[in-house]
Amino acid sequence: NAGVTQTPKFQVLKTGQSMTLQCAQDMNHEYMSWYRQDPGMGLRLIHYSVGAGITDQGEVPNGYNVSRSTTEDFPLRLLSAAPSQTSVYFCASRTSGKIYEQYFGPGTRLTVT
Amino acid sequence: GNSVTQMEGPVTLSEEAFLTINCTYTATGYPSLFWYVQYPGEGLQLLLKATKADDKGSNKGFEATYRKETTSFHLEKGSVQVSDSAVYFCALSDLNNFNKFYFGSGTKLNVKP
Q1: Chain B, nearest residue to A50 by Cα
Q2: Which end of chain B is more exposed for a tag (fewer CB within 10 A), N or C?
Q3: How far is CA B4 from CA A61, B27, B59, B90, B102, in A?
Q4: What are the tens digits of pLDDT across the range B32-87?
Q5: How do strand A108-112 and strand A10-13 relate by DSSP bridges?
Q6: Gap between the Cα atoms of A66 and B23, Å rounded
Q7: Rounded (10°) CA dihedral A102, B98, A62, A26
């Protein structure tokens, strides 16, 4: 089991560029989420999904898009990167059988200049 | 709304010292409460949880008690080790939506030999 994997580990973008952060899990978990981690602010929920084809917004969804075409993958798209999106991004997943236990990926550190 | 407040770090202790990391929360009703740990270069891992008032969560020598009257969930360990050096996050889950987690800003613990 690889668990939750994220690519890339590091990325530098220029303002206005677009990119997709990849997240995959091999545990057959129904629920997946994206968080951003900023200094002094902890993790904040961006978007989440309760299954293939179903997504919803979290606390800070603006500037990000998601889709969930398969159980395994949950990519996060930045449509037009802004310096305010400089952050560390974490993907997490969990199963309906263990509603409290989230499994986190190792994170992607994104810098927007 | 929901929020979690943690003591600011870093906290620096000598090996075998007693650890307390304070956490208080604001929520409607009685949410579930968690402590997560993040080791360098890794994603967050669930350390312990408590799902109702007066519950005590425990794992790997760490403990935390859900105190409704003081809206607190302080993390304690009687004797820390160098391997406990990490960032610790307090979190709560929304009563109405277990997909929504709210995290504190994290407390970095440094344990010196």
Answers
A1: B99
A2: C
A3: 20, 9, 21, 7, 7
A4: 999 999 998 888 999 999 988 999 999 999 999 999 999 999 999 999 999 999 99
A5: parallel
A6: 32
A7: 30
